[in-house]
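Data availability (excerpt). All sequences and predicted token strings are deposited with the supplementary files. A representative entry, T9SS type A sorting domain-containing protein, is shown inline so that the format can be inspected without opening the archive.
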Amino acid sequence: MRLTRTSSIWTLIALAIGLTSTVKGQTNSCVPPTQFKQASLLVEAAGITWKNNGSAQEWIVAWGPAGIPPDNMTLRSNTFEPHFIVPLSNAQSQTEAYVKSICGMSSSDWVGPISLSDLSSCANLPLAYSINDTICGAAEVLLEEPNHENVIWWYAGLPRAYDHSLLTDSIQSSTTYWMMATKENGNDQRIGPDYGSQQGGYVNFNNSQVITVMDTILLDSTTLISDAAVSGSIRLLNISGNIVYQERSFFLDSDGEHRIPIRFPLLPGRYRLQVLPNPGGGRLFRSSTPQHYPYVLPGLLSVDSTSIGIINRYYYAFNLSVKSLCTGQIAPAHITVGQQPYSGPDVRDSLCLRDSLFILNDLLPNLPLSSGGYWTRKGMSNPITTLDLSVFSPGDHLHLQYITQGTMHCSDTAEYNIQFYDCKIGLTENQKDAIAIYPNPAVSHIEIDLPHDVNLQSITIASIDGKSMVEIDSYEASRKIDLSTFSKGVYLIRLQFENEVIHRKLVIR
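Structure token line:
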């Protein structure tokens, strides 16, 4: 059959329509993405990113065995962000990925393929063993993982450190910290920008980067760039501005690039990483244009260098290093706080030797000791209640301890060190034995009996700290001394003779 001119035109139109349908809805306005690449390795997953060069607000990602066309790949997903996590846990061979833009009812061409790699799964995680510790009274505690393995330390729902040990805050009452068994997986991965990508000058400002975390990671380190020596700190806040980690101090002793360790373990969530330079030093470098890095580091979904709601303040922590952390068993680190008692002050004293057996609480009643304790000889564990002075000689020393028990085996000890001296101080033994002071212990009065050939010049009764309470210039034998106004306690009696002095201890009940 021969075609007429009119039929030929309709035939060309039909062919044109058929050719257009083979593009599968692509329009000139639906621009395919560019810079399609794998941004990071994750555990049995791959983080991929691309740049949106058009008006697309949605993309389709397809992945499968290498060599299969994207239209034949059954694994695919829609995403509304220019990045995606491709699961590779069931991959049996090399996996490739494609991406295309979605623009309403139309789409762009597929972009790709790129080959994907991942980190191996975590095996043989170290075990975290429980810790039970007891402290007496409020104190800081150095907790150490029993096997000296690095773990994530937790308290009050937040990770506190990634290390084999943790110095706690001052603990006031029994508290439980937690240890999460942890193992680094793969090498650290870094995200830009670097110094060469920056334009503009130096400024001083306080600002923060927003980071979104999808898994457990270690924010290991970052580079700071300054034009002179400067000090400051880096800290991590949650998205509401509350501090998650206290500040990590830094000091840059010259201009240029400096690598700063951070070592913040992070859980899934959104955070702000903030650098706080101290005034008076160098200025930190910044970009003169907004920086946005939608990279997918191990667990780190994106980094946004702009501060939300604040114009012209941009990213300034360069080359963030992130490590993937595999986690396992959680174990408690429990600190029990026992009641810390107070026994009393340490005391040094001297006693005059006599052939007497004393009840310790009568001999030392005015010491400011706590109740409920017990006496013991230093170096011995058996409690004692009496003290036999006859077994000591002048110049001997006795070390007593007064021990008070609190809770959880917490105790406190007061030291009482005694030096013995000779009571007669120059008098003959017969003269010393002839002097009688009674009753002792006393309640309301005492009497002092003296030999008839002894010339007593004065009597002084003093408190244990030397304060004179009563002074009598002359004394008749067998006269009473009124003690009714005296408080209970231990006193010293000073007997002044013509050439000698005698000291005796007096107990008033």
